[in-house]
Specification:
alpha/beta
């Protein structure tokens, strides 16, 4: 991509954001409210978020929201402890949130798999409801994917903006 085409691509994504967010909220608000209500009824004492790349930015945003609005301590997972070293931490009393646009990241999937194994609630935030990540979620928030975009986060459109919005809706 040339410099000029990159600027045009980014400008196009920025212009799409209001409609993307409106559509996401229209489509997922009831699901998010149901998930949030169900999680409030459980004994969640802290949140662990697993993400990579641009999704990690959404996790950081979620860290502030869940801390500020829900007064929950929030940590960012170290996925290699789960996927490479096979030494995951104890997860009791936690909520595990995996954020991946494609839902294909093996290390993020491994974090949710371990949450399932340890019997804690898991939430997948992804564009692909049929992804391995979504399969490991007790709850799933589906982000928007335009019909012309691929599942690969580096070429997907619209932008990753819906990821932090999904954290906002859940935290309220």
């Amino acid at each position: 991509m040339t410099g000029e085409s990159l600027v045009s691509f980014l400008q196009n994504e920025i212009r799409q954001q209001p409609q993307v967010l409106t559509t996401l909220l229209d489509r997922e608000i009831e699901n998010a409210q149901r998930i949030a209500a169900d999680l409030r009824a459980r004994s969640v004492k802290y949140v662990i978020m697993a993400a990579r790349g641009t999704s990690d930015n959404a996790a950081r945003y979620g860290q502030y929201l869940f801390g500020a609005y829900n007064r929950l301590p929030v940590g960012l997972a170290t996925p290699s402890l789960f996927s490479v070293y096979g030494q995951p931490p104890r997860l009791e009393d936690s909520l595990i949130i995996g954020i991946s646009q494609s839902g294909q990241s093996p290390d993020i999937v491994a974090v949710l798999e371990e949450g399932q194994r340890q019997g804690v609630p898991t939430l997948a935030v992804t564009k692909d409801p049929d992804s391995p990540l979504a399969a490991q979620g007790d709850y799933v928030l589906v982000l928007l994917r335009s019909p012309s975009s691929s599942k690969n986060s580096t070429t997907s459109s619209p932008s990753p903006t819906p990821q932090p919005i999904s954290c906002t809706v859940l935290s309220l």
